[in-house]
Amino acid sequence: VCTHRVRSCSSIRSVKSKYVCVFDKSALKFSHQQRLLRTSAVSCGQIVQFKLSDIGEGITEVTIKEWYIKEGDSVSQFDSICEVQSDKASVTISSRYDGIIRKLHYSIDEIAFVGKPLVDIEIDASKGVASEEDVVETPPMSHEEHTHQEIKGHKTLATPAVRRLAMENNIKLSEVVGTGKDNRILKEDILNYLAKQTGAILPPSPKAEIIPPLPKSQTVPKDKARKIPVPVSRPIMFSGEDKTEPVTGFQKAMVKIMRAALNIPHFGYCDEIDLTQLVHLREELKPLAEIRGVKLSFMPFFIKAASLGLLQYPILNASLDENCQNVTYKASHNIGVAMDTEQGLIVPNVKNVQVCSVFDIAAELNRLQSLGSAGQLGTSDLTGGTFTLSNIGTIGGTYAKPVILPPEVAIGALGKIQALPRFNGKGEVIKAQVMNVSWSADHRVIDGATMARFSNLWKSYVENPASMLLDLK
Amino acid sequence: MVLQPSLKNCLWLPCVLRTPKAGFRSAASGSLIIQSVSNDVYQNLAVEDWIHDHMDLEKRQVLFLWRNSPAVVIGRHQNPWQECNLRLLRQKNIKLARRRSGGGTVYHDLGNINLTFFTTRKKYERMENLKLVVRALKALRPQLDVRVTDRYDILLDRHYKISGTAAKLGRTSAYHHCTLLCNTDKFVLSSVLQSPYTGLKSNATPSVPASVKNLFEEDPSLTSEMLLDAIAKEYATHHQIDHHITLINPADETLLPGINNKTKELQTWEWVYGKTPKFSVSTCLNMAYKDSVHEVKVNMDVKHGRIEVCNIDLPEQWLPPALYSDLVRSLTGSKFCPNETTTRVTTLLRACPQDDELHSKWNLLCENMIMLM
Fold first, then answer.
1. Mutation target vs B (from A248, A379, A381; most B CBs, 10 A cutoff)
2. Between chains, do B168 and A89 touch, taking CB under 8 Å as contact?
3. CATH superfamily to which B279-372 belongs
4. Residues B193, B84 contacting (CB under 8 angstroms)
5. Where are the CATH 3.30.930.10 domain residues in chain B?
6. Which B-chain residues 171-210 have CB contacts (< 8 A) with chain A?
7. How many CB atoms neighbour CB A460 within 10 A?
8. What is the pTM of this model?
9. Burial of A304 (0-12, 13-18, 19+ CB in 10 A)
10. CATH 3.30.390.50 residue ranges for chain B
């Protein structure tokens, strides 16, 4: 291994010392082959000490704030190595070499000195040493990076490996779109460019780039275009990998609840609901609610109807204790509405629906929804529910098989509203607004007949909203 | 798509060529003054990133003028819990952003103007930029007592800070940006920049509080627009270019390819909160339950914005041990975030035995824990 002192030429040290200070420019005048013969005898890579270069403004020390790499990582030239801070200035230090990081000289929050080694990088000696700059104690920043390829006045950034690949395939780098940092051209960009040229279909890379179809003006003349294009027989390399990650905290909580839910013997009951009348009613009432500052959806009607039904069948608003010894009939109808958020499934509930009007429920839902989207729901909004409705239909679906959320004993899932042809009483085909409801209930305390009767009652309220007036409290 | 590299450098030529007289002179020195039409802090920070990453500043320097609707902007290596009142921000819908430059925390609203000076790394020179700003202010109102300090602040009447500075240096380019208080709501400023969180220990860059004053208080005839114009004029004179401000739209993907991704990245939780240097929380909850008050010691280590270690010193048997360990396990690894914690603890509660007393204790403890975030 040859070692050179900074600024002095070719004093060849003994093989024992591993560290190589960066070559002086004048040293490049010596023939490469000579040196390589000597280096190859010892190790496969040379360790280069990458020193912290001048920050400017006479600054001599900085604080290391973040490492972007760790020992053993491979880096390419221009990759970011770390972030340092000095007096309100945050500086990104990038690598000057391709290689493998062998040592970090500082840990986070330590003070690093300009001109002293920052990291040790093992560079591949067989690649030869591309033009370096000398790293002197106080280097002037007057020379630019030499590995830019000035083509048509553009700076095309690419590592030597990428450039070799382009050259082997007769590709002009100026025609390739770079997707790396600073528009750097990466190996994938060359491959994508090749794919576009030959019409081969490359499977999606891990970055999942969508290759746009060629615009018509670029396709071959019409008669040829009619033929089915034959893919070029290129070996298809699938570069996707399985990805394993730990179960998140929220998923852990869900696992626990679902295990508890597994102990509940579920049975399902489904039905089709004709919402034609409700749709009309809502259209009438929507502007009234808006005047009062509230957005009116279908949910307030579904929730109120459920509460009216629970008054007749209170077992559905109950809770079974752990040992199945006691059933507690809950006095409050705290009806939850399942909401899908970034954090996971949350079920904010409207408290005491039994004493709320449809408008009250709508206002409360508005409040919960806006808190929910702002991520500001409190624990009281999310606990204490006794019965749940899931409006999965807003996403899609017809029939579902919802899972009961402990400690409740029943749940309903509402599918999407579709306009479908149905027969009316006179045998005529009419357009009906149809929605499916799927109930699940705890068979330990609820029997099929009770669930069916509750569902029929709920259905009658929702299909014929005027009938709710008779039983509203 | 192949246009991309050519767009990078030829980008500003169409703008410059619009004013034919200026074109020739601009080509000589090359500098450019641009102003954002957006008041969205994330979009504007994304423009800074874009220029820093994509523009060739060798032949031309750039001055970028921008203003934001109410937002708190923390420095690259700062701790938002330490720097501001996050609860108040959430309540008042004030945005929180983390910029890529270093330095301390600032409050932005439309009464505050932001100036970013883009140069190559060699030409990075903060003092020159600030002196330019002072010259501009004095040209506008000669009687103003404004000066630059060696901490790169601008002081009014030798005492009040009207401008703070921060900078970002990359491989080939650099930028220095600073604020200028024209007519900011000082009441909101002081209330949001006061952290209510106690017991935080970290190596994050702390902010240095300072007395501030608006230029408007000194001279009510001044407006943000006048200040922007004066600074642009001084910059144009200094760089020998036409006093012409080019407006840009930070949402324009054709003009600034890739800008929308940058804007999105700046808004992610991982960037805003996750980039907080490791810190610890060591505090005492005072929980009043029934007739007794419990002092509960809490210790947490937070790394990348997530709770690494969590210790809650509860009185023995106050909560069933299984439930306590469920809580600790659930908190460990989760974001130090009230929303996420609320979701988790309320979900966990479903798997608990249905006991009113237990529920109230659980809710009490969890609400106290959430207050820490």
1. A379
2. yes
3. CO dehydrogenase flavoprotein, C-terminal domain (3.30.390.50)
4. yes
5. 32-273
6. 171-172, 174, 203, 205
7. 15
8. 0.72
9. buried
10. 279-372
Assigned token pair, B26 = 């601009």
- Chain A residues with CB-CB distance to B348 below 8 A: 253, 256
B94-136: pLDDT as tens digits: 999 999 998 899 999 999 999 999 999 888 889 999 999 999 9
Output b/e per residue, A260-282; b: 16+ Cβ within 10 A: bbeebebeebbeebbbbebeebb
State both tokens at B327: 């809580």
Where are the alpha helices (H) located in A13-159, listed in sequence order?
Answer: 32-42
Residues 6+ apart with CB under 8 A from B4: A177, A178, A183, B257
How many CB atoms are located within 10 Å of the residue B28 CB? 11
CA distance B222 to A429: 73
Helix axes B321-331, B356-371, angle to 10 degrees: 30
Q: How far apart are CA A99 and CA A344, in angstroms?
A: 42
Q: Residues of B with CB below 8 A from A258's CB?
A: none
Domains of chain A from N-terminus onward: 46-123 (2.40.50.100), 167-196 (4.10.320.10), 263-470 (3.30.559.10)
E strands of A314-471, at which residues?
A: 318-320, 327-329, 335-337, 339-340, 345-346, 349-350, 387-390, 410-414, 418-423, 429-442
Average of pLDDT values for B338-348? 87
Name the maximum alpha-carbon separation found in chain B: 82
Residue listed under structure tokens 């080694």: A117
Q: Virtual CA dihedral for A261, A264, A265, A266, nearest 10 degrees?
A: -50
Is B180 within 8 Å of B148 (Cβ atoms)? no
Q: What amino acid is encoded at A370 in this protein?
A: S
Instruction: Summarize pLDDT for A93-125 with one digit per residue, the tens.
Output: 888 888 888 888 898 888 998 888 888 888 876
B163 pairs with which residues across the strands?
B154
* One-character DSSP codes across A206-272: TT----PPPPGGGSPPHHHHTSPPPPP--PPPP-------PPPHHHHHHHHHHHHHHTS-EEEEEEE
Distance set, CA A288 to CA A29, A285, A294, A299, B211 (Å): 87, 5, 9, 17, 51
Q: Which CATH architecture has domain B32-273?
A: 2-Layer Sandwich (3.30)
Structure tokens that stand for B75 in this block: 């420095």
ipTM of the complex in this document: 0.80
